[in-house]
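Task card 7
Instruction: Convert sequence to structure tokens.
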Amino acid sequence: MSAQGSTTTDIRRLARQRLVLYDGGMGTMLFAAGLLDGESPEPWNWEKPEVVDGIYRAYYEAGSDVVQTNTFGGTPIKLSERDLQDRTHDANYLAARNLKAVCPPGRLVAGDVGPTGKFLQPMGEFTREEFDATFEAQVRGLVDGGVDLISIETMYSLQEALCALRAAKKVTSMPVVVCMTFDRNPRGFFTLMGETVPQCLQALKENGADIVGSNCSHGSPVYVELVKLLRDSTDLPIIVQPNRGKPVLEGESMSYKQTAEEFVDDMEKIVALGADIIGGCCGTTPEFIGRLREKFADRLGGGADGAPAPAAGGGKR
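Output:
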């Protein structure tokens, strides 16, 4: 089992002391920098590290306490879609090492773990053991690269989330954050596999998750409703990372119209309803994180080490 990261800050303790600010969209920033639709972003960790580092810095400068690595699709299973499975350790190690190098003192580096995009048997072709192994390979690269915590996100299947969580707990003792993504229908909120919010959060806690919550799928207005259910379903710290409103189709691409002011107004309600960690997902940028830092300056304080906060909006691009 790998040791805890070198930082003395523990997000588990921090989230119970004050509001914590995550980052915003990574893919949003990569596409703006030239990543093409359908391309894997992980190769940029060795092909264009200066571009990825610039995104990392922008989020820290905007005020993020925690920034996630560019490894959303960093499992061997996901990387195999581009015949990159043999570079799993490189992709994750380099992302973590590069992010650690630009991380200001007292801030945190999160190793980002996303879904495989596949299904477990009997719906899919993969066994639980294969999912466990693919997540373990990714997490080992992230831990070797020096992350401070593991951030599992956008999980649409509780069973897949549990595979990722088990892998993280096997590899390291550092904190593990798990975000599910929920669809909303007339009966309420459910994962793609039909699991409820209370069912997911209870299972995640029982299997060792330190912080739980939700990201993606919906814009901030829907999260005002969802956060109530999240808060009522667990006594663990809650993390919420909404999209930038609801995207609209313009030609062949999707765009987001919600303003930073509208996003922040919704996040004010979300924090009042019990969110402990906030950030953004698809469509959000350093500008949005900077506005959150400004809005919640009294709740966020300084950086994770208590140092003075940077000027909000410093990472606007």
